[in-house]
């Protein structure tokens, strides 16, 4: 047990005069521990490895890396700021009397303690002060000559990345070049998740006008960037964009041979006529350009599970397997912005219990083909087509791009979504669920197609939805309409909660509703009396069934049907109603079972149901 002068977390609990006497323990833990929140550093927020020494507060569970904690309360002199000493500030949210909130060296956010010079408005993390960059770099990856750190507060433009720096560049005087400290170590050859080929760093692209294919801003040809030598068109990415943690997997590939992976998903049997697809190897599939019996949408693609109308597709003549031509051509492996590791195509056998999955891009549930990454991320077929850009001039006059993975407000559904496509020319954003809505759709029994409309600004009055008979505001809402009859529908009333799922398959309810611990615990007694299953069915009966939870008539095109241990069948409108019904019915069943097993004359139960 050692005493330490500093405790930023307990200033309200401990008097100021006693703050220097807060006890800390430096301890090495060898055991294998799970990565709980307590195993992350309170300053840099990075994980503290199990065998690392760390500071731990004796009054709470907070821990810090040794490098992140100041060794004394004294002022320090630092080579990046040689003019004045730096004062240690504790328990202040940001430097006093100015708006900066980032470290001047690493440009990351400042926490509750840091070193600061009030005369020069200079701030630095404790961890950055302990690991100052070397004054000379003799073997830099970015340059063939020795580089020297110029300790001056002069602004400059880094020759490796093309962005500005404010102080202390590394320079080569004979060549007249300057670099950020972090750009000295830029990798030469990398894989990024926005492109299928490797990209390599170059210090000059040559004269020309180019845009970064990630942020879609101008790339200055005079400075360094990453480019693809395989593509005939200029594929160029800013150095900073290419090495972002959500774009690059962190692996330097210079000198590493490029592996060959056969991404072709099928074997051509007869050119233009037949193929053998990896997902249906037992039979040959034949090309179908147009087919009259497909116009009703009764057949669904096995991959994207959307109805097949007049699109070109492949069909098995020995069974009911059918797949869009575009879906059949999707590669076995591809890169996608959703993960830094490659995605591999999985045919997703619906006979298995885990065939229901939630797409990581649009957050909708699907049971069609999926792409899976090594990090456990799943991607449905509709979102797999949206690599980095989306263009639909009926929706928005400008092309939309995946520039960052930050959440945004969708201009279609008006909701805040985790991933959105953004317009680089205005503030419009669009979520993946809205971007992948079918442009045309046909409801069962209808003669004509319904077409997606992205709102109508010039109409007066309001419309009415043909399904739920509620008001539909064409000025603010997207909707479906028939060009012949003029009827209108809410999006949710046409596609429902399962636009990317195929009906007719049976699952255990956990596969559809997720492994909810409360639900799992509540229904533990019922599971002893039989298996409970759930089925996704078409809502095409002449009389719409009543929802067992909300009591209303089920309106969506696909609804959930439950087979419960009480040997009765019930229907639910959506996932929310399903969860509520299962929890409520579990409580009723547990109470009934408890009363049924209680002997006459006894007031206490003979068993205790495990209710979560």
TrEMBL record:
One of its GO terms (molecular function) is zinc ion binding. Keywords: Metal-binding, Repeat, Zinc, Zinc-finger. The keyword Ubl conjugation does not apply. PROSITE patterns: ZF_DAG_PE_2. Residues 77-142 form the Phorbol-ester/DAG-type domain. Pfam families: C1-like_CT, C1_2. SUPFAM superfamilies: Cysteine-rich domain. This is Phorbol-ester/DAG-type domain-containing protein. It comes from Brassica campestris (Field mustard).
């Amino acid at each position: 047990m050692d005493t330490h002068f500093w405790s930023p977390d307990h200033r309200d609990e401990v008097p100021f005069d006693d703050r220097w006497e807060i006890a800390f323990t430096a301890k090495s833990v060898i055991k294998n521990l799970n990565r709980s929140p307590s195993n992350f550093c309170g300053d840099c927020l990075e994980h503290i490895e199990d065998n690392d020494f760390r500071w731990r507060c004796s009054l709470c569970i907070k821990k810090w890396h040794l490098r992140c904690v100041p060794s004394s309360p004294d002022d320090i002199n630092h080579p990046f700021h040689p003019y004045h000493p730096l004062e240690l500030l504790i328990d202040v949210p940001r430097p006093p009397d100015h708006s900066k909130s980032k470290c001047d060296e690493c440009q990351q956010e400042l926490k509750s303690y840091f070193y600061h010079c009030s005369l020069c408005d200079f701030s630095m993390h404790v961890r950055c002060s302990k690991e100052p960059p070397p004054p000379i770099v003799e073997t830099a990856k970015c340059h063939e000559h020795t580089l020297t750190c110029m300790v001056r507060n002069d602004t400059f433009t880094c020759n490796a990345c093309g962005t500005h720096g404010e102080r202390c560049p590394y320079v080569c005087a004979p060549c007249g070049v300057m670099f950020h400290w972090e750009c000295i170590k830029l990798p030469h050859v990398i894989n990024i998740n926005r492109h299928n080929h490797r990209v390599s760093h170059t210090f000059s692209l040559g004269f020309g006008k180019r845009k970064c294919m990630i942020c879609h801003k101008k790339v200055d040809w005079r400075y360094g960037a990453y480019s693809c030598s395989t593509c005939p068109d200029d594929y160029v990415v800013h150095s900073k964009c290419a090495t972002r943690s959500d774009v690059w997997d962190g692996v330097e590939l210079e000198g590493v041979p490029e592996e060959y992976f056969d991404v072709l998903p099928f074997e051509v049997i007869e050119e233009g006529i037949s193929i053998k697809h990896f997902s249906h190897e037992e039979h040959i599939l034949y090309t179908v350009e147009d087919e009259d019996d497909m116009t009703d949408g009764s057949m669904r693609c096995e991959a994207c599970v959307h109805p097949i109308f007049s699109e070109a597709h492949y069909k098995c003549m020995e069974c009911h397997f059918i797949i869009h031509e575009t879906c059949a051509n999707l590669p076995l492996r591809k890169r996608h912005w959703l993960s830094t590791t490659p995605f591999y195509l999985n045919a997703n056998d619906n006979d298995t219990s885990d065939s229901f999955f939630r797409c990581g891009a649009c957050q909708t549930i699907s049971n069609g083909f999926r792409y899976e990454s090594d990090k456990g991320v799943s991607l449905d077929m509709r979102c797999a087509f949206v690599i980095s850009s989306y263009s639909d001039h009926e929706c928005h006059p400008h092309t939309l791009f995946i520039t960052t993975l930050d959440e945004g407000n969708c201009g279609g559904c008006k909701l805040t979504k985790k991933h959105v496509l953004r317009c680089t020319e205005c503030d419009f954003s669009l979520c993946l669920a809205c971007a992948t809505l079918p442009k045309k759709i046909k409801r069962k029994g209808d003669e004509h197609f319904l077409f997606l409309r992205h709102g109508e600004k010039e109409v007066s009055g309001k419309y009415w939805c043909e399904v739920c008979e509620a008001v539909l505001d064409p000025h603010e809402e997207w909707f479906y309409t028939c060009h012949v009859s003029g009827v209108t529908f809410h999006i949710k009333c046409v596609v429902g909660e399962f636009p990317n799922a195929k009906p007719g398959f049976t699952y255990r309810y956990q596969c559809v509703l997720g492994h909810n611990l409360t639900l799992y615990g509540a229904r533990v007694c019922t599971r002893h009396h039989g298996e409970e299953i759930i089925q996704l069915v078409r809502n095409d009966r002449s009389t719409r069934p009543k929802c067992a939870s909300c009591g209303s008539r089920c309106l969506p095109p696909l609804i959930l049907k439950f087979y419960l241990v009480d040997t009765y069948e019930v229907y639910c409108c959506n996932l929310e109603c399903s969860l509520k019904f299962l929890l409520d019915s579990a409580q009723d069943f547990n109470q009934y079972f408890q009363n049924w097993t209680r002997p006459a004359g006894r007031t206490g139960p003979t068993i205790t149901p495990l209710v979560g």
